[in-house]
Each structure stands twice: as C-alpha cells, then as structure tokens.
Predict the structure.
Amino acid sequence: MDRGDVERWLDDYVSAWKSYDRDQIAGLFAEDVEYRYHPHDKPVRGRDSVVAAWRGEGDFPGESSRDEEGIYDGSYRAVAVDGDLAVAVGTSTYTDGPGGSVAEVYDNCFLIRFAADGRCREFTEWFMKRPTP
C-alpha cells in the first residue's frame, strides 16, 4: 500500500459510512477483518459482522448507532504508511440535521492494516469529541 491507496480507501470509507450500503461497506474489508471501535474493545470479527455493526443490525462491542441520513461528514488523511500498515487522522462532523449547523466534531485516529488485495484486515479507531467553545 502507498499513501494514494490509503487515501482512496479513506474516501471510500467516508462514502460507505454515508450510504450504509451493504456492498459498499463489505468492499472495504477482508473476509476475516477484525474491527475495533475503541482500542480496548473486543474486535468485531468478520466482514459480515462489520457490515451488520455499521448498519446497526446487531449487538457488537463498542458499536455506534446508525446516523440519521445527511448529518455525517468525514475527512481523513494518511499520516504514515509502512507496507500494509497505515495511520490516518481526521475529523468526523455531525450536524443537527441535514444541511444544518455543526452539532459535534470528533477528532479521529485510525490504525489500519491491509490485506494484499487492498481491503482492510484490521481496523482500530481512537476518537475524542472536540469541546465546544
């Protein structure tokens, strides 16, 4: 993986998070992926489980609830890439309704390990809610 590959994956991640489309989400992850919403969580294991967790269709460690359509946007960039391992940082922004004013911003750090085909096989997220001024 190089920085461009990781940036494309991150763009696809944002697109999939916005759409909640089963195939888009599945396309990001290897069959045997381990996904953690927080570093201390037990991983969500397997592509089908990650898809279900994203879509709010199960009971998984650390899973967030499904966002209302049109309130999320994300912007992430790779800051380090070493072989199959990447570190990305960015922000997740939520509005008070579609087209509304910003309600919450989270600062994110992702640790991502990729399979040979460019799909994610390990994902761990760290995030903090940004204080409101």
